[in-house]
């Protein structure tokens, strides 16, 4: 990968690579923009820049992650994701073979998610001014009129449903990045949740809110919701699914899975009388087989997030600003 | 001769003089001396006007001091003559304008007069479990808001009968304005339930409880500031059942014995301790057990500890419970592991149903949770390990120079939290609240702040918190700052130091002192975790002159709950890897493949915060000597058991040697010697533990002497949780005093994090005063 005038040639090469991998009518028109008509409904849009080290990891790579991340952000509104844009920032000297792998992985992820990557851009920056490869994606989706999901709609009494195990992505990335080996390899859970969401809203349109607990983990997501909906949250430790190997790695590293990032899980807040019905739909879906009701929303002016421990104690689950620094004196 | 010299005298008394029966006491005293005048509360305490001659006033003042009501404490009195006013009688006036709220007094143990009435079959309160008077009984535990009047306490539900009302209104009566005054006819009642919530009909609930306890059962008792779980402490099977039920495998249980006679059969009691334990605060006191007694206390009461915590009955309920029991009872907080003790009947039914067989309930609600206080006598100095019932919310006077300190609230630490309000030249420290990560405790923390703001009519919007970015108290402070309040932040060990300075009345403009803060882990000015510090400074500022060699906490908080991680990090730092090889057989953990991951984490700085903590060094040594290397089940366990091990060591055993390089204490030579001793197996582990304590004390003193050549100080402050280690504390204190230093130690507040709020408050005030 070269920069400057040679870089121009490279960028062209890359455009061809994209054209081939993402092949769709919009790209093939070779315009600087994509023009399309959306089905009826409200338009939902989200953007996310993806920066991750290492670029390739068990369960995915930066390419698939950049599709999953934005598709999920769109889908959490209840919308059907339709189109993506992709912007690449590549560091001079980045191996073409790696780029090919990434692009192909993006293409597969997009196909699986039912979205078309309809426009894109590439910049090559000087060596040392980037970290190999950064990808920004922006997504557009369509939301039918009767759905109304939002972080400020959560009500006391709502049940909280988690779609699967916590911490897989964060632990997988960390162990690979830091060269830690555990008895079994832990794979990232990176996946798009559009189809799970579609099944959920089709069955229970009354869902009040959905979020994907990415950076900061479930703890950050629950605190965000508590703040924006002015409610409290109680979760039950015994009900929270965590893979044994993830749990063991967290124990080892002194991390709490509640604070570890996920890339293929969602948490839904829905009226209590619909919770069992929703749970059943989720469990029938391949991406929600381990779904569980993990807690409920409470009326609490202090907006506390608390966890009932396996011994019946109650623990504060607050925001954590940086690393999990010990508080014990 | 008389009439000519009769004047009007104005006597002002300040201290703990409101809400403790002080005005009726003055009334009775004046009447007894046939003096006329008036007494009332005002903003500074109590004011008395008296018609008398000079000599009589002197006698009055003398008797005032000598016959003080048990709960009162006088800090200052002043007497002067004023323009003559003639009084026809002596009266108690209602409280004056501008009266500062004195909040309420601490809960007090049943006084001897009430105890005598309790067991006097001719008394109308014979065997009434809620007997009390002005000199004893509940206060903080029942108050909802000020003023401390019956209607604002949980006694509001109980309308006094005519006899009780008469007592309540008679200044000559011991029950004059005793807010919880009650009797069998009009007051609270007890009843028994089984674990399913069925009431048990019993002629005498206490006989029933005694039978259950003798049969080895566990009973739940609603006490003063919370529920207790009780069982026969000489029955190991009962104690085991209690441990299983509470999910509390090792942490010591407190004991209650009927009286000082029974106590002296089980523990070694000196006069200091006996005064303390029979006094109106009636704390749990840690004592050396008697070597032999006929019904020995079960071994599993306090595994791995050489002292046991004892208290005496402090409510009529306890007196009735223990009347016919002459062995110690376990009397531990009524909760499941990790939760604070239950205070409501419903919470107890829910939390304790799987633990207790029989419940003693009553219908006087507990408004505020107040735990038992815990005290340890080390070398004649009282060390408060937990300050709650009987002490809070008694205020502390501020040191010289703080008279104009601004009103403020210090938010305390994370564990063993207390709050401190600075107001009108005094510090009001809340009862021990506990660990804020526990949600019920955090709820109580918020409620306590509201309660105290109300009790003291506290207005200020100035707050002080710890520097640690993750403390819940600090995050709460940030929230307040977001609402426009002013927030100051104070370094953890600076607060420890200032807390000790403050309780020793060290003046605000005193020379800088050397603080030796030995602690767990607190957030340092350089953003690493401190805990083995030599700080030079005063209330305003500190400089870190020296400290322990920092080492990584492998896995952050996990290194605190799994002490062998500290051992691994210490050894790795002390010895080159190849030198460690011969000792690997000593520690099976060191050969484990996880150590390779540890190495990697340390190398990458992943989840391995650096700390100079003394507490963690003690953990590492404990792990090396086989005390709970793999995991601890309660905070501080490894270090506590290490002290017990050292206690069995031969006093003549020579100390280990540490080295000092560039104001850093390096434990490497100690580790090399310890490993060699372990390998040879010729020295007992107890001797090794003791040699560590002695050597560590020696190197601290060496460091002090080195620092003396660099800075000018004569006063040394000892603070931080590690100072609760009696062996280290004694050795350090003795050496430093022998060298002529003026050594300040904690004798009123805990050396641990419960003392932080007071230190934070003083530092915050000093900053404002010097700005
Ligand atoms: Fe501390
Ligand atoms: Mg996102
Ligand atoms: Zn009394
Ligand atoms: Zn009565």
Automatic annotation (TrEMBL), chain B:
<dbReference type="Pfam" id="PF22521">
    <property type="entry name" value="HypF_C_2"/>
</dbReference>
<comment type="function">
    <text>Involved in the maturation of [NiFe] hydrogenases. Along with HypE, it catalyzes the synthesis of the CN ligands of the active site iron of [NiFe]-hydrogenases. HypF functions as a carbamoyl transferase using carbamoylphosphate as a substrate and transferring the carboxamido moiety in an ATP-dependent reaction to the thiolate of the C-terminal cysteine of HypE yielding a protein-S-carboxamide.</text>
</comment>
<dbReference type="InterPro" id="IPR006070">
    <property type="entry name" value="Sua5-like_dom"/>
</dbReference>
<dbReference type="Pfam" id="PF07503">
    <property type="entry name" value="zf-HYPF"/>
</dbReference>
<dbReference type="Pfam" id="PF17788">
    <property type="entry name" value="HypF_C"/>
</dbReference>
<dbReference type="InterPro" id="IPR017945">
    <property type="entry name" value="DHBP_synth_RibB-like_a/b_dom"/>
</dbReference>
<keyword id="KW-0479">Metal-binding</keyword>
<dbReference type="InterPro" id="IPR011125">
    <property type="entry name" value="Znf_HypF"/>
</dbReference>
<dbReference type="InterPro" id="IPR004421">
    <property type="entry name" value="Carbamoyltransferase_HypF"/>
</dbReference>
<comment type="similarity">
    <text>Belongs to the carbamoyltransferase HypF family.</text>
</comment>
<dbReference type="InterPro" id="IPR051060">
    <property type="entry name" value="Carbamoyltrans_HypF-like"/>
</dbReference>
<dbReference type="InterPro" id="IPR017968">
    <property type="entry name" value="Acylphosphatase_CS"/>
</dbReference>
<feature type="domain" description="YrdC-like">
    <location>
        <begin position="203"/>
        <end position="390"/>
    </location>
</feature>
<feature type="active site">
    <location>
        <position position="23"/>
    </location>
</feature>
<dbReference type="InterPro" id="IPR041440">
    <property type="entry name" value="HypF_C"/>
</dbReference>
<keyword id="KW-0378">Hydrolase</keyword>
<dbReference type="InterPro" id="IPR036046">
    <property type="entry name" value="Acylphosphatase-like_dom_sf"/>
</dbReference>
<protein>
    <recommendedName>
        <fullName>Carbamoyltransferase HypF</fullName>
        <ecNumber>6.2.-.-</ecNumber>
    </recommendedName>
</protein>
<dbReference type="InterPro" id="IPR043129">
    <property type="entry name" value="ATPase_NBD"/>
</dbReference>
<comment type="pathway">
    <text>Protein modification; [NiFe] hydrogenase maturation.</text>
</comment>
<keyword id="KW-0862">Zinc</keyword>
<feature type="domain" description="Acylphosphatase-like">
    <location>
        <begin position="8"/>
        <end position="94"/>
    </location>
</feature>
<dbReference type="InterPro" id="IPR001792">
    <property type="entry name" value="Acylphosphatase-like_dom"/>
</dbReference>
<dbReference type="InterPro" id="IPR055128">
    <property type="entry name" value="HypF_C_2"/>
</dbReference>
<dbReference type="GO" id="GO:0016874">
    <property type="term" value="F:ligase activity"/>
</dbReference>
<dbReference type="Pfam" id="PF00708">
    <property type="entry name" value="Acylphosphatase"/>
</dbReference>
<keyword id="KW-0436">Ligase</keyword>
<keyword id="KW-0863">Zinc-finger</keyword>
<dbReference type="Pfam" id="PF01300">
    <property type="entry name" value="Sua5_yciO_yrdC"/>
</dbReference>
<feature type="active site">
    <location>
        <position position="41"/>
    </location>
</feature>
């Amino acid at each position: 990968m070269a920069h400057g005038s040679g870089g121009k040639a490279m960028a062209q090469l890359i455009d061809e690579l994209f054209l081939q991998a993402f092949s769709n009518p919009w790209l093939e028109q070779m315009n600087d923009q994509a023009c399309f008509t959306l089905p009826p409904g409200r338009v939902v849009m989200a953007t996310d820049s993806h920066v991750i080290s290492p670029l390739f990891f068990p369960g995915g790579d930066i390419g698939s992650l950049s599709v999953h991340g934005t598709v999920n952000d769109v889908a959490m509104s209840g919308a059907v994701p339709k189109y993506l844009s992709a912007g690449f920032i590549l560091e001079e000297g980045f191996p073409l073979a790696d780029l090919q792998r990434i692009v192909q992985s993006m293409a597969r992820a997009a196909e699986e998610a039912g979205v078309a990557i309809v426009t894109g851009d590439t910049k090559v920056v000087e060596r040392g001014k980037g970290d190999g490869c950064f990808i920004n994606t922006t997504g557009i989706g369509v939301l039918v009129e009767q759905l109304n999901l939002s972080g400020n709609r959560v009500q006391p009494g709502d049940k909280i449903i988690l779609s699967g195990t916590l911490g897989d992505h964060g632990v997988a990335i960390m162990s690979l990045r830091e060269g830690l080996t555990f008895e079994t390899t832990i794979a990232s859970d990176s996946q798009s949740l559009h189809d799970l969401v579609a099944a959920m809203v089709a069955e229970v349109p009354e869902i009040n809110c959905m979020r994907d607990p990415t950076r900061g983990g479930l703890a950050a997501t629950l605190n965000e919701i508590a703040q924006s909906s002015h409610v409290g949250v109680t979760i039950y430790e015994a009900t929270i699914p965590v893979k044994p190997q993830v749990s063991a790695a967290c124990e080892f590293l002194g991390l709490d899975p509640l604070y570890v990032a996920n890339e293929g899980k969602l948490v839904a807040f829905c009226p209590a009388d619909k919770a069992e019905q929703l749970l059943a739909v989720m469990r029938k879906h391949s991406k929600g087989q381990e779904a569980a009701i993990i807690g409920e929303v409470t009326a609490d002016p202090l907006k506390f997030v608390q966890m009932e421990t396996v011994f019946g104690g109650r623990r504060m689950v607050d925001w954590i600003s940086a690393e999990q620094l010990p508080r014990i004196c | 001769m008389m009439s000519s010299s009769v004047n009007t005298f104005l006597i002002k008394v300040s201290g703990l003089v409101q809400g403790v029966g002080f005005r009726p006491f003055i009334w009775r005293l004046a009447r007894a001396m046939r003096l006329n005048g008036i007494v009332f509360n005002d903003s500074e305490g109590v004011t008395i006007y008296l018609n008398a001659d000079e000599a009589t006033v002197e006698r009055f003042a003398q008797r005032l001091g000598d016959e003080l009501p048990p709960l009162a404490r006088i800090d200052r009195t002043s007497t002067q003559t004023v323009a003559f006013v003639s009084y026809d009688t002596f009266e108690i006036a209602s409280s004056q304008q501008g009266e500062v709220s004195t909040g309420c007094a601490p809960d007090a143990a049943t006084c001897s007069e009430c105890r005598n009435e309790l067991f006097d079959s001719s008394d109308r309160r014979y065997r009434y479990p809620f007997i009390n008077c002005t000199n004893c009984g509940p206060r903080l535990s029942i108050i909802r808001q000020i003023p401390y009047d019956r209607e604002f306490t949980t006694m509001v539900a109980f309308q006094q009968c005519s006899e009780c009302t008469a007592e309540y209104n008679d200044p000559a009566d011991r029950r004059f304005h005793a807010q919880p005054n009650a009797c069998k006819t009009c007051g609270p009642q007890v009843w028994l339930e089984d674990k399913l919530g069925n009431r048990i009909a019993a002629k005498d609930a206490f006989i029933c409880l005694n039978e259950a306890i003798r049969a080895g059962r566990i009973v739940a008792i609603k006490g003063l500031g919370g529920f207790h779980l009780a069982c026969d402490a000489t029955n190991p099977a009962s104690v085991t059942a209690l441990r299983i039920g509470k999910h509390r495998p090792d942490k010591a249980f407190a004991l209650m014995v009927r009286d000082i006679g029974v106590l002296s059969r089980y523990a070694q009691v000196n006069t200091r301790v006996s005064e303390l334990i029979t006094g109106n605060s009636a704390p749990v006191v840690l004592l050396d057990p008697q070597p032999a007694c006929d019904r020995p206390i079960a071994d599993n009461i306090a595994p791995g500890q050489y002292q046991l915590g004892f208290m005496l009955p402090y409510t009529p309920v306890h007196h009735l419970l223990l009347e016919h029991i002459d062995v110690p009872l376990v009397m531990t907080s009524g909760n499941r592991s990790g939760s604070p003790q239950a205070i409501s009947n419903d919470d107890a039914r829910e939390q304790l149903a799987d633990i207790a067989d029989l419940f003693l309930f009553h219908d006087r609600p507990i408004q505020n949770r107040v735990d038992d206080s815990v005290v340890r006598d080390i070398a004649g100095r009282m060390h408060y390990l937990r300050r709650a019932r009987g002490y809070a919310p008694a205020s502390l006077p501020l040191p010289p120079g703080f008279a104009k300190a601004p009103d403020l609230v210090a938010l305390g630490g994370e564990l063993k939290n207390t709050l401190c309000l600075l107001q009108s030249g005094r510090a009001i420290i809340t009862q021990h609240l506990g660990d804020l990560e526990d949600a019920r405790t955090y709820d109580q923390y918020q409620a306590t702040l509201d309660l105290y703001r109300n009790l003291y009519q506290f207005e200020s919007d100035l707050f002080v918190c710890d520097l640690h970015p993750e403390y819940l108290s600090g995050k709460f402070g940030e929230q307040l700052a977001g609402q426009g309040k002013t927030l100051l932040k104070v370094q953890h060990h600076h607060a420890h130091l200032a807390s000790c300075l403050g309780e020793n009345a060290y003046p605000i403009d005193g020379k800088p002192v050397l603080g030796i803060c030995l602690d767990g882990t607190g957030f340092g000015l350089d953003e690493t975790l401190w805990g083995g510090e030599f700080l030079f400074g005063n209330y305003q500022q500190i400089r870190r002159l020296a400290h322990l060699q920092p080492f990584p906490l492998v896995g952050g908080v996990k290194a605190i709950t799994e002490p062998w991680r500290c051992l691994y990090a210490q050894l790795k730092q002390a010895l080159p890897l190849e030198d460690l090889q011969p000792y690997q057989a000593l520690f099976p953990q060191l050969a484990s493949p996880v150590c390779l991951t540890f190495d990697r984490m340390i190398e990458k700085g992943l989840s391995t915060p650096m700390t100079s903590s003394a507490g963690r060094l003690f953990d590492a040594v404990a792990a090396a000597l086989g005390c709970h290397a793999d995991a601890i089940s309660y905070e501080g366990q490894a270090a506590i058991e290490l002290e017990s091990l050292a206690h069995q060591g031969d006093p003549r055993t020579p100390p280990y040697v540490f080295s000092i390089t560039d104001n850093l204490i390096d434990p490497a030579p100690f580790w090399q010697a310890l490993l060699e001793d372990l390998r040879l197996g010729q020295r007992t582990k107890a001797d090794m533990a003791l040699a560590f304590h002695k050597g560590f004390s020696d190197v601290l003193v060496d460091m002090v002497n080195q620092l003396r050549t660099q800075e000018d100080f004569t006063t040394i402050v000892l603070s931080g949780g590690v100072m609760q280690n009696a062996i280290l504390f004694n050795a350090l204190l003795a050496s430093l005093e022998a060298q002529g230093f003026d050594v300040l130690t904690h004798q009123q507040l805990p050396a641990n994090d419960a003392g932080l709020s007071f230190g934070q408050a003083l530092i915050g005030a000093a900053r404002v005063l010097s700005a």
